Amino acid sequence: MPKSATNPIYGTYIKHATKFIAKQMQEKQAQRLIVGLSGGVDSAVVARLCQIALQGSAKDLKSTNNAKDRLLCVFLPSSKTDKSSFVDVKALVEKFSLPFIQHPIAKYDSLFSTQFADSSALEAGNFCARVRMALLYHYSSMHKGIVVGTSNQSELLLGYGTIFGDLACAINPIGALFKTQIFTLARDLQIPESIITKPPSADLYPNQSDESELGFSYASIDSLLIAIVKKSAKYQGAKHQPTPCLIHPKALHKKHYKNFDEKLVSMVLSRIARNQFKREMPTIFLPKPKLLRDLCAHTY
Asked: Locate the NAD/GMP synthase domain: which residues (predicted)?
């Protein structure tokens, strides 16, 4: 592992994240890692981490041979995918010789628009996100693999993703990192600069921009999110940073964040509370013990 170009801590992160990927792959008895590429920085970082993990050693970032048969990167453009995404995916794949296929979903997109003509651009985008994930899981089934998530902690906390779409995965090696940290990590991983510097976008519809939709830069958002996570940790009594995206309810009071822009605080706190369901497992009704025992006793 070469010395980090920015901060040694990111080199350490790469080392531990790649070990996590390799260990999870072994424990889940997966034969291949499936990564959906979008042309964005998050999926680029995840694809590179997976490639390094499959080398068996993180000592040489330029070595890629051992990853060829155990990694599959899939680009699933819709009819509305920006042209720059095609260019950036190609640049990433060629730079690192990533195992890659392109699977267009324009036909699904068109069918949805025909059958749901009154749907909004966001609804159509969410549909495409779920189609992409369905196909990624199909590829994982074909290759006895696991789908690797590409959502960072900023997106997960804000609920800035499609439930059962891009938020779905078997493992996630970047879910504890905030968006601004992803940019730094990307440079350490030598991701093409064009991918790092372009405006973050979920690419759900033309000209979409994360920061324009949210109304604030990720730098501003992340500084507040970090404060919220720290406050949550105090309420939870955690000696170390708690599980990413699990925020204590008492940490969601505006009184704690008077040093931040009021509109920013309102937006972030409301999104965290409103989108909590996206970060939870489905709620299963559990009968009282006596009823459950009676039910089990009458099982045929």
From this structure: 14-282
Starting at the edge strand found earlier in the chain, the sheet holding 71-75 runs 100-102, 71-75, 32-37, 145-147
Which tens digit of pLDDT belongs to each residue from 14-32? 999 999 999 999 999 999 9
How far apart (Å, rounded) are the C-alpha atoms in residues 91 and 35? 16
Nearest 5°: the CA angle 222, 187, 8 is 80
According to DSSP, the β-strands at 145-147 and 100-102 are unpaired
Radius of gyration, alpha carbons of the chain: 20
Cα 192 from Cα 89, distance rounded (Å): 10
What H or E segment, with its residue span, contains residue 18? helix 8-27
Over residues 88-99, the pLDDT tens digits come to 999 999 999 999
- One-letter amino acid identity for 185? L
User: Residues 266, 250, 259, CA angle at the centre, nearest 5°?
Assistant: 45
Find tokens 């060829």 and name the residue. 68
pTM reported for the whole predicted model:
0.90
Q: What is the Cα–Cα distance from 173 to 150, expressed in whole angstroms? A: 8
Query: Quick one: tokens of 75?
Result: 């680009």
Q: How far apart are CA 56 and CA 109, in angstroms?
A: 39
Question: 244 and 175 in contact (C-beta within 8 Å)?
Answer: yes
Which of 1, 45, 30, 51 is CA-nearest to residue 180? Answer: 45
Helices (H), 161-217: 179-188, 193-197, 210-214
Structural fold of domain 8-200 = Rossmann fold (3.40.50)
Contact between 221 and 152 under an 8 Å Cβ cutoff? The reply is: no
Question: CA distances (Å), 5 to each of 17, 176, 187, 191, in order?
Answer: 18, 21, 8, 13
Q: How far apart are CA 55 and CA 21, in angstroms?
A: 11
CA 2 to chain centre: 26
- E strand or H helix at 122: helix 121-142
